[in-house]
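Subject: mismatched residue count in predicted assembly?

I count 511 residues in my input, but I want to confirm that the predicted structure covers every chain. Input:
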Amino acid sequence: MELSPQTEKPLSFNLVLYTTYLLPVICFLIFGKRQFKTSIVLLLVYSIVFYLLLTFFEDLRDWINQFESLKGLYSNFYTFLEYNFFTSFIFINIASKKVRTAIIYLSIAFVVFQATYFLTSKFKSLDSVGIGVETILLFGYVIYFFYEQFKKPTNITIYNHACFWVCVGILIYLGGSFFFYIMADHMTKSEIAQYWNLTYIGEIIKNILFSYSIFLYARQNNQNGLNKKILPNLDMV
Amino acid sequence: MFLLQATNSSTTVIFIGTIGMLVLTIGLVVFIVMHQRKVQRFQQKLQKMEIEQQKMMLNASIKMQEEERQRLAADLHDDAGPLLATARLYLNENLVNQDKVNQLQSIFQARQIIDDTIQLIRNISHDLMPPTLKNFGLESAINDLFQKISGSGTVNASQRFHDYKDRLKPEKELLVFRIVQELINNILKHSNSSFIHLTQNVHSDKFYLRIHHDGRGIVQSDFEKLNKSNIGLGLKNIGSRIRLLQGEILFEKDISQTYYKVTIEVPKDDPYSS
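Triage response: the counts match. Full output below for your records.
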């Protein structure tokens, strides 16, 4: 969720949007086999931390944007964090060592590219190029992840796999805003403000899909095999 | 509404591009779902194959039983039969007409043959059901088995039972022992290992056995593959015994990549008694 200074959202929209941010954690608390009291405490802690972080980052953005030379730092840093978060998730779910190594190299290249681009080019309204590269790279990783799942001889269908819905969420979220972010530098501020809210639709869908994947994950975790069980001491010593 | 407002080229690009991306994503998801349906059809086919495989296993077990009976019949017919016939020859009707020295010699010979026959029948019986297992339990039977293996001098076999105060039911012990026997046979035959170590423990109503060896081994995917193929009768028997015990088996390589491990989990309570 990139925080946009240009957008004015109606309260009802904000309510829906922020509720979907809480959905994954609600799913995690409901299906994660916890006591009701602990769940409520965790939900409160998450909500407070989330609100504080949101406020902090909004203030941080406004503060950074005061300095002409630092304009774009917030946007770039946001893209960097988002890329790393999604990539780490896909990285741990990909089995191929070669592809994992390739992801590491590509990520290093991406960070170097982002830093170079930030230092050498003039920032307008968004780090469009960085977001574009991020989207293309993540699309590649997700498609490879799907391909790897196809090849696996398993009884579980891919849509019963928690990671599948996270990946679909990533695709919709990035795909839905890709062209808007790419074109943002060629648009007027009023145009950006007009279309910015469209990006939240992808975001809401992403949050719902992430919640569903957490639900699936919690459900699957209750059906463990021998290799996931706690075993007694069976070592040789 | 937004499309109507798309007056300039950049907004047109955004709309067409976004719709294109969403179509691409939805297309991808639809393709995956279609593919999964294909996979499901394949799974159904696989299930049929599994039923076929179970039939095959049943046939294999019947065949094994028949072979065992034939072996028993052959042992009794070819070994015990001639021995008893020879003993009968020594103890024929003419024995009373012979002189005392010859009589004693014949009786002595007949007695020796009868002793041999008793030993032979005892061996056959031990093959069918190890007496140590019946009388002293799984720990002693495995200990005996491992001592015999170590006695050969080529493989160092050792075992450690951490907690076996409460013995499994005799029928369960026999099944577990047969599984261990089959695994050890496979290790000796195929793995070329220099040591075998067995560890036992219990944890929350489950009985665990783990066999380590340093030779060539198999992992779970190999076991499942072999179980579905026409070869590997021994592994199929292990699989069917595990199913009978309502347990689980896991073939894996140690984290150190030095050893292979086979872990068996068996419920301590009789699953049929509840």
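The interface with chain A takes residues 2, 5, 10-11, 13-14, 16-18, 20-22, 24-25, 28-29, 32-33, 35-36, 39-40, 43, 162, 197, 199-203, 208-210, 212, 220, 248-250, 252, 263, 265 of chain B (CB under 8 Å). Marking this ticket as 'not a bug'.
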